[in-house]
């Protein structure tokens, strides 16, 4: 199946970057098809507190709902079609760009914006922890405090920034988070070090094995001593990895630099690089990606009645 007829731009990913690309493209008279694997703004639903976004947004769900309303409005006017599905690969030749979905659908248009962001690192991605038989583990940032109500000690793997966001978003959460982290995460622990709910443990290597009712942890410290303890639950907080697609050029770290791709393939948002992962930057990227084919008219098919 091709994208709905006369699609100018395919967009993969319905986060801040993808939705901004669709809105900007619509404002320029371009028709888009947006592919989303989960739901519009999916990541934003788990951001409990926002304080760096112009416009008075104070939490992620509020923004996600506004982005969903934007897409519904674009769909109602015919400017954009939203396709629910998981893209697996992207490609381009001189004439067009192509996106393949996991269910076999084949979408084509003049150009494509890939804005698939990043996904949470699983336990298998972390080289300083062995956890045989424990995958997959839920990410802390997607876990609601009420799911942890009955838990005693909770092990958190990694001290990445979402730990601070989660604690600020849930000041009422009565939890005991035992945070295992490597030395390289030490600078990130400053913002949570004074929170009485957090117990930081720097480790060179940890082993986590399931036992009845929970897990047993053996955390080795830099001086060689091993701290062994039991816990009820393990949650991931070790950072993110790029959620790229087959067919994209990626650096050794897996990220997909925008300027290294085929000219019909544009990259927006968190997928570009491990740095600068912010909502406003993703939105600006999405806009820029929609403007590029508009200015570079050779990328778009000529259509009767279109302004020159
Ligand atoms: C806990 C947490 C707190 C944060 N707090 C802040 C903050 O306070 N301020 C701030 O500016 N930023 C914050 N961020 C970062 C911010 O969420 C990201 O920078 C922003 O969401 C990036 O937007 P994006 O559109 O590039 O990617 P995303 O928002 O990740 O959107 C990507 C979309 O693509 C979809 N997708 C992925 N793969 C596929 C596929 N193969 N096929 C189809 N669809 C796919 C996903 O389902 C998702 O909806 C936070 C992030 C986290 C995790």
TrEMBL record:
It comes from Streptomyces zinciresistens K42. InterPro entries: FAD/NAD-bd_sf, FAD/NAD-binding_dom. It comes from the Bacteria. It holds the Pfam family Pyr_redox_2. GO terms for molecular function: flavin adenine dinucleotide binding; NAD(P)H dehydrogenase (quinone) activity. This is Putative oxidoreductase. Residues 8-121 form the FAD/NAD(P)-binding domain.
């Amino acid at each position: 199946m091709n994208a709905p007829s006369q699609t100018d731009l395919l967009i993969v990913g319905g986060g801040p970057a993808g939705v901004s690309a669709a809105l900007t493209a619509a404002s320029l008279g371009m028709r888009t098809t947006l592919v989303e694997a989960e739901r519009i703004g999916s990541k934003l639903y788990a951001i409990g507190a926002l304080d760096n976004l112009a416009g008075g947004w104070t939490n992620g769900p509020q923004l996600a709902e506004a982005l969903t309303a934007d897409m519904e409005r674009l769909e109602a006017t015919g400017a954009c079609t939203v396709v629910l599905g998981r893209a697996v690969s992207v490609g381009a030749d001189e004439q067009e760009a192509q996106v393949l979905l996991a269910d076999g659908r084949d979408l084509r248009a003049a150009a494509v914006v890939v804005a698939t962001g990043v996904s949470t690192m699983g336990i298998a991605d972390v080289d300083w922890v062995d956890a045989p038989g424990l995958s997959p583990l839920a990410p802390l940032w997607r876990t609601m405090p009420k799911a942890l109500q009955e838990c005693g000690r909770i092990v958190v793997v990694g001290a990445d920034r979402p730990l601070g966001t989660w604690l600020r978003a849930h000041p009422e959460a009565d939890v005991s988070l035992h945070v295992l982290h490597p030395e390289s995460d030490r600078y990130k622990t400053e913002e949570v070090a004074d929170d009485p709910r957090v117990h930081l443990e720097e480790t060179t290597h940890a082993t986590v094995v399931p036992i009845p009712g929970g897990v047993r942890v053996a955390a080795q410290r830099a001086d060689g001593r091993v701290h062994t303890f039991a816990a009820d639950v393990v949650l991931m907080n070790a950072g993110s990895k790029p959620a790229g697609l087959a067919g994209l050029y990626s650096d050794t770290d897996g990220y997909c630099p925008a300027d290294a791709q085929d000219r019909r393939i544009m990259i927006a948002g968190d997928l570009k690089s491990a740095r600068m992962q912010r909502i406003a930057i993703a939105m600006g990227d999405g806009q820029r990606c929609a403007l590029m084919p508009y200015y570079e008219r050779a990328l778009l098919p000529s259509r009767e009645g279109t302004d020159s």
